[in-house]
Amino acid sequence: MNSLPVLEVNGLMRSYGGGKSLFGKRKPVIHAINDVSFKIGEGETLGLVGESGSGKSTTGRAVLHLETPDAGSVRFRGNELTLLGPQGLKPYRRQMQMIFQDPYSALNPRMKVGRFVAEPLVVHGVEKGSALRDRVAELFKRVGLDPSFMSRYPHEFSGGQRQRINIARAISLNPAFIVADEPITALDVSIQAQIVNLFQDLQDELGLAYLFIAHDLSMVRYLCQRVAVMLRGRIVEVAPTEQIFSDPRHPYTRSLLAAIPIPDPDRRRPDRTPFDVAANIPAREAQMVEVAPGHFVLDQTTQ
Amino acid sequence: MKHFFKDLTSSKAGLFGAVLLVIIVALALLAPMLHLPDPTRGDLRARLAGPTWDGLFSPGAHPLGTDEVGRDILSRLIFGSRMTLMVACTAVVLGGIVGTILGILAGYKGGFVDKLLMRLVDIQLAIPLMLLALLIVAALGPSIQNVVLVLALTSWIRYARIIRAQVLSLREREFVQSAHAIGASTLRIMFLHILPNVMTPALVVGTLELARIIIMDAALSFLGLGVQPPTPSWGRMLADGRVYLSSAWWAVTFPGLAIVLTVLSVNLFGDWLRDYFDPKTRSAK
Lengths: 303, 285
Ligand SMILES: Nc1ncnc2c1ncn2[C@@H]1O[C@H](COP(=O)(O)OP(=O)(O)O)[C@@H](O)[C@H]1O
Ligand SMILES: [Mg+2]
Hints:
The complex is a heterodimer of chains A (303) and B (285). With 303 residues, chain A is an alpha/beta fold.
């Protein structure tokens, strides 16, 4: 990662609530993400792992400016996005896409899937008429779907097929970077591997960079070059994938590792002391320290 | 479509409403071809003639009797239904279009539009609709256009409220976020992604509104503020016939029955339609 990263995020913040409720009571503020920073190189996959509610989706949405961050900076190939309005962001929307967790709610139930996949091309005025149709057919084939499915509605598809449709839409504009928000969590275990393989093939072919969000570490190992672990809105550890698995430093990372199911019943899990989130809320002033080259840990305990 | 009819035939009330509605609409549409007596021409020799089934198919027969100037009540009912249905349908569609667009705008955009709309809802809820309609028609003068306008005015807000609530939940759905992520314009999101997904609730509100508007239209013409004579209208027939209630019961009974049956059929069909489209009641079956 000596060259310019495709994405550089610094000190990103986003909180919810805080407004006044109907009777003038202040609603509590939730800091969904707090001081989140990371980089992703061209063609690289960064895994983002953490329990549900830790702020992973919020991070993905804030990076793509689907909601405006409260503070912090997001740079795409060196260009600052945070100050751009909707019009200024539009050219960058061609380059960055998102794939959502729930393949059921991610498709418009009232739109034929061919039209849905074609929509980005139409919005950006890339293709028209029969060229558009050909391009969509090609995209369908690319993600392993029969192009004759184009004229069907979403309810006729299985979860795995729907996720393929979402992927086809996301890659239609040849983006450089995709946020994949738990793209396989809602799928059957038998299909998860197929979709992960599709992600990998597309990356090899198109040179895509991913922010791959997951709630556990099992799939991340195969897909990601580096992993960031998130806890209560903060990144507590970032390291190359092998480092995370061989030398986890943060107690929360260790507890995530211990939770990975081990197929071999004879092997014992290393450390099964349950992780107490409440006792480990990252301190506000805690800083990341580099414990090995490229391996950062949030130094929250004054050891 | 197949499922639609199968479900309909399994609901007694829904089927009854649908069949009745089809008959009423068919009669209204086919009225000019039914060789009915002229609904506006009276026959002074046959004033307030009672219903009689003798010589049913002869030219001078009045199966439902005649009114105070000797006009055939059956013919007036059928021709009256054309006007009632046309006025009510136009008002429902007009109110539906305006209400749906404003509901989407308020739900998706929020902010000022939303606040303004909700205030209007509060205000309209506080004013009796009938009173509002009376005031406006009285001020503008009774004409078909004004009646349609007033009825639509009392109607759009019901669509807007329900559509707005739907949009509030649709807005959070991932396909809407996905449209946002590809850089789709707000207009595109509202009309291509939100609108098709609120058509079903709009349709359901529409049928229920149709019933309410038919009653309101009848009430307006009962008060002389609707369609003007000699064009037949159900409300007017009620108003004119009620004077003779003790001597000629048919002059009010049949128009009243026509209103009741039409409203009933629309309501029964609308109720079924709502259940049909409601996934909760559907899965329970
Ligand atoms: N639109 C929202 N409004 C209010 N709170 C939200 C919203 N989105 C997320 N949150 C809150 O922010 C926190 C992080 O949520 P999220 O990013 O969805 O976590 P994750 O994807 O890791 O499960 C949670 O506490 C959640 O309740
Ligand atoms: Mg999430």
